[in-house]
Amino acid sequence: MPETFSLLDEQWIACSMPDGSVCELSIRRLFDGSAAPVEIRGDSPTQDYAVLRLLLAIFWRAHRHEADVAPGQTFEMEDWFDTAWQDAQDGGVDEAVLTYLDEHRARFDLLDPVAPFMQVAGLRTAKDQWSPISRIIPEAESEFFTTRAGAGRESIGLAEAARWVVHTQSYDYSGIKSGAEGDPRVKGGKGYPIGTGWTGSTGGTVVLGSTLRETLVLNTVSACLRAGDADVPVWEREPDGPAERPVPVPQGPADLATWQSRRIRLMVEADRAVGVLVCNGDRIPDAGKDVRADPMTPYRFSANQTKKNQPPVYYARPHDTDRTMWRSLEPLIVLDGEQSRAAFAPLRPGTLTSLAELESPFVSTEQRIVDLRLISASYGPQASSHATTVDARIELPRAVLAPGNGGLRRAVLDTAAATQDAAVALGRYAGNLLVAGGGEYSFLAAPTDGMLTQLEGAFRRWLRDLTTDAVEASIREWQDEVLRRIDEEAQVMLRGAGPKALIGREVLVNGTSQIRSAGSAYRHLHADLRAALPSATAHAEPTQTSTPDHQETNR
C-alpha cells in the first residue's frame, strides 16, 4: 500500500482536452497554467458535477479575500468578474489558488492516516465489516461491473476511487447503512436513513465556459466570495469522527459543495481500492427546508410547508427525469415575484441571476448565449437506491434572464407550454383512434413523448436564436413548425389506423349517439391544435383524403 496519494499532485480528475482527448489531471495542474482542460469528463455526469463543485469550493475560498473592502466601500462583483474572466481566458497561473492549496496540502491526501480526504480514519463497525468497492459505484450495483473481468470486478485504482468518494458524499442514496462504532445514532449495529447526499436533492445547473477555468468563474456569485467565516469546506475544519457534526444548518455555498453526508473509509491493498465502509454522516436538517445557500440549483415553493402569514418555504428542486428541457425552463428563468402557475414562482439558480445582472463588458460581448448543462439524480422507492440520471444541455439567450425582460420570459414559457399542450393533443388523438377502431379510450403517452423528443432539438435552436425585436414573428414561425410536424405524424397514424377506424362506430356519449371514426378523431385533433397553437398561420380543415365521404354518411 502506498503511503500517500495527494489529490493535489496525483493525476485523478478526468478532463476533456481541446483536441478531444480525455486525460487525468491533478488539482494543481488545473490552476498552474500547464494544462487547459475544456471540462470535467469522468465516469458519470453526476460524478462530473460532484468533482466540479469540489473545485469550485477551492476556487471560492482561494479568492474570498478579493471581496474584502475597506470600511465605507462596496464590493463590486463586476470588477471582480472582469479580472477573473480575463485571467481565466489567459489560462496562466492562478496564484491565489496555488497559495491556498499549499496552506491546506495535508488535508488532500486520500491515504492520510489521520485525516484521509473526505473519509474518517479508523472508521469501523462493531464486527469490522466491509463492503465491496462496488458499493460506491452506482452502476456497479446493477450492470456496470459485468463488463469487467477478474480483478476489475473487485478493485479500482486510487484515482477512480477518489472520484467515487467525492461522488458518494454528494449523491449517495438513503436507506440503512453500516453502523459506525462511536456514532450514537446507531441502533442494533445499523445506521438508519438520514436522506440522500445534499447534491442528490438538487437540480445541478452548470454555466459552461469554453474552458474549465472559465466555467469556474461563471459559476461564482458574490455570495460565494463573501460568505461568513463559518462557511468552510471539509478540509478547513477539524477532521470528522464517526458521529454527526454538531452544526444545525449548512453555513454557506462552500459548506454545501463539500457536505459530508456520509462517513467513509477506503480499504486499500497495494495501489488498489478493494473495499469500502459507508456509514451515515451529516444530515441536512428538515429535509433541506429553506436551505437556499446553494447557487447552482433551482428551488421550488412548498405550499404544504408554508404557514399562513409566514414567509414562503422553498426546497431545492431536482430536474425532471421526463421531458427535462420542457419542464426545467420555468425554474431556470423565472424571477421571484413573476407570475407563475403556482402560488409562488420557483427560484432560479443564483448563478443565472448573477450573470443576468452583471454589467461586465465580457458578459455583454461574449455571453449573449448562456450554455447550460443540467445534471440531476433520481432515486428509487424511499430514495434507497439509485435510479436514473439527468444530463441535458440547453442554450439560453442572456436577454431571457435579464431583470427587465419579464415579457420575453413569459413568451418563452407560454411557447413551451403551448408546445406541450399540442403534443398532449396528439396523445389524445391516438386514444380516439383506439375508440374508432372498436377499443376503449386510453390516453397514449408514447406519441406525446415522441413528439416532444422530436421537437426538442428544434426548440433549442429556436430559443437560442430568439431576440427581443422579433418575438411575435418567432412565435408564429415556431407554432407553424409544431403544427406541421404534428399533422404529419397524425396523417401517418391515420393511415395506419385500419379499416374499422376509417369506417367508425356508433358510441353513446352522455346518452347521445355519435359516430367515432378516424376522421372525427382527426378533426378533434385540429380543434385542439387551434386552441393550443393560436398564433399558427397554417391551420386547415382536414383534407378530403383524411376524412372520407363514407364517414359522413355513417353519422
TrEMBL record:
It comes from the Bacteria. Residues 535-555 are annotated as: Disordered. InterPro entries: CRISPR-assoc_prot_Cse1 (IPR013381). NCBIfam families: casA_cse1. This is CRISPR-associated protein, Cse1 family. The lineage of its organism: Bacteria, Bacillati, Actinomycetota, Actinomycetes, Micrococcales.
